[in-house]
Amino acid sequence: MIPLLSKDRIVARPGFNRWLIAPAALGIHLCIGSVYAWSLFNPALVKRVGVVTSAADDWSLRSVVWVFTVAIVCLGLSAAVAGKWLERVGPRMVGVVAACCWSGGFLLGGIGITTGQLWLLYLGYGVIGGYGLGLGYVSPVSTLIRWFPDRRGMATGIAIMGFGGGAMLAKPLIGTLLEHYYRAAEYLGRVTDLELITEQGRRMVNLGGRLHEVVVVGGNDVAGMIVPGPEGVYLVGSGSVGVAETFFTLAAIYFVVMMIAAFAYRIPAPDWRPAGWEPPPENSEAMITRHHVDIDEALKTPQFCQLWIVLCFNVTAGIGVLAVAQTMITEIFGSSLPEVVDAGFAATFVLMISLFNMLGRFGWASASDYLGRKLTYFIFFTAGILLYCSIPFFAAQVSQHPDIVWLVLFYAATLLIFTMYGGGFATIPAYLADMFGTRFVGGIHGRLLTAWSTAGLLGPLAITSLREHAVQDAIAALAGKVDPVRFERAFGAGLKDLDALVQAQTVTIAKLMEIVPPGTPDPTPGLYNQTMYLMAALLFIALIANALMRPVDARHHLQQ
């Protein structure tokens, strides 16, 4: 098997059509790009036990978002190591290993969900699957840059467009599988028809002489149900959200597609050039070099550090939103516009993010061939700062004046942000090739992707931590406005037990809003305000790093 995967076996013969490499690159990136659809799993993962709503033993949103974070961190770490290995063994070997890791991660993650072992989900999808992400990410990019030295931006846009579009294809696939495998929890009846007991923050009901844990679905909870059902009491542990079975099915599909794509790889001969093309002359203004810089030498240059900051902060600003996209739009607009923003609308929002992410990767990367990389990133950061700062304004307006116009403006701003988020990913390999040459661009790109690992840690950490603090503050503020007698009647315990009730997920913002005095503003739309301002500040730092970019000093060039 090893000789079949070797680099020597995939050197293209004279006359090979270089455009045949594009489908192979897209195939692998479309599969691993489904990581951007992770937020589609969140509603099911946080209801793994309760099914209709979160139960006391269900995983928190923060804990499942961190699975995505671990996957992105491992992506960057594996890409940093695999870059040099890729130069030695070739893209077919790397692609096959990526297929085994990515599909194997889904398989092990599904076992973790079935058994309730969160650490297995982290190990499977997060670590093993994350290493598959990194290996699968670098192999198509470096291959296409070598086949298209005359169109570097377009070439990287083709490959990385697939990664951005992976979630677009994954959305209907994941949605269909979750719906197919979903089994509703047992409905016991309305709250008024049953005698509920509260023990250590949990709601219980006596069935056949034994206490069974239940969850209560109120009017504000119906919009968050995976499959809408009646208000009332449901038995915990009955039914299934279908997420484990979905993981197993995806493992098989992705393995087959990625293996086919890996065996379709070819690389050009060392002295190959496109017919009639000659390398352009040195252009200090556009910062396109004809020289090459070794992988290890590139790390010593200030340009590598600047590009690392550019990529890291651009990704941090978007990746946190990606991790919670479906939950975020539901929380900001679900209470104000419940007839519009339901579970289906939120899932479609994830699909549209993926579509515009994909279009931005190809469109902006291709445009950078004409605009220049430095100007392209200047546009990303200046526009991004304004757009991130606009989101808290839209959230505040829809809370005070529920109108669909604020949803439309939010939608437009978010989608524009993600065209530039995707464009930043797709343009960075061409930026590297301009600065350091093409000979070692695969390895240098792999090292630079440690910025993605860092961003994968910072983005979700920022958005989940700031949201968590905002939720705690909101619950405390709302509880202070509730009539204590009405509170005890609703939850079976007094305000003194608030912490335990919140810990058991018995008390939430949505449930408190049902018993607060009329006219009390819902704090949910503002849960993400601090995060958006932080992201704008990070983009400002990246803007400065890009503005200071200069050509690489000649002392770093490889001596021929």
What descriptive keywords fit this protein?
560 residues; mainly alpha; Growth Hormone, Chain: A; five-stranded antiparallel sheet; 20 helices; 63% helix
List the helices and strands and how they pair.
Elements: H1 2-5, H2 21-32, H3 42-45, H4 61-89, H5 91-115, H6 118-147, H7 152-181, E1 187-189, E2 196-199, E3 202-207, E4 210-217, E5 232-235, H8 243-263, H9 295-298, H10 302-323, H11 325-333, H12 343-371, H13 373-400, H14 404-436, H15 441-448, H16 450-479, H17 484-491, H18 498-503, H19 509-512, H20 529-547
Task: Please give a structural write-up.
With 560 residues, the protein is mainly α. The chain has a single domain, classed as Growth Hormone, Chain: A (Up-down Bundle). 63% of the residues lie in helices and 4% in strands. Strands 1-5-4-3-2 form a five-stranded antiparallel beta sheet, with no helix packed on it.
